[in-house]
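SEQUENCE WITH STRUCTURE:
===
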Amino acid sequence: GYDYIELSGYEVSTLSDAAFTELLSIIKGGSIPCLGFNDYGRLAPALVGEAFDAQSIRAYAKKIFKRGHQLGIQSIGIGAPTLRKLPKDFSAKTADEQCQLALSIILEEAEPYQIFVLFESIHNYACDYCHTLKAAYKLAKTIDHPLLKLVADFYHMQVMGESPETMLNYIDIIQHSHISGCGAHYERPYLTETDTPFIQDVFSTLRKAGKPLTLSLECDAAQFETRAAASFACLKNLWNTNAI
């Protein structure tokens, strides 16, 4: 029942040429388009920190955008918490300068394909840099590139105490959103009817946004076939019955 999929950019980047060709055939021959990548990188070059290396950032971006273009994606989400680790007392100014440079390099590689780069705030239990939509918005506005937009991830926002409606303060450059449950140890379970109040708040906010936005269910992969189907049914029912 889903309209599209997002694939893991990291996993796509690690495929052999033969495996990628097989994936390309499956996607092109299927009925559900791949509109974007999430999971930009796990072991990819760091966006900030002591291991920052501009040349490596460019090489990785070049590969991931080329493969993304072949798959027909429209955007790449950059959350990548493992690439945003900082040692204690690392300069905040230096981290900002590094991330601005990293995103500028990534955007240069995106330009030939006109693929959007969607930066994402990540909660402070997962990474050490850029935890709120406000911080992500400030960074994006500083760079000020037409292909640079934001992801509003309602899971990360929830952990950081940001209500779904916080998104409306930054709606001019928000293009995409993610949703999931939030476990006791910050895991991302699939949504069920017990999440109804949260889902209602999210849907209410999306209706107030005044612009079309995509919403992806971004959850832990366990029991995908059954739980993803059940989550879709829950979301569809709440949306269609206007239960907000």
About this structure: Residues 147 and 192 are 34 Å apart (CA to CA).
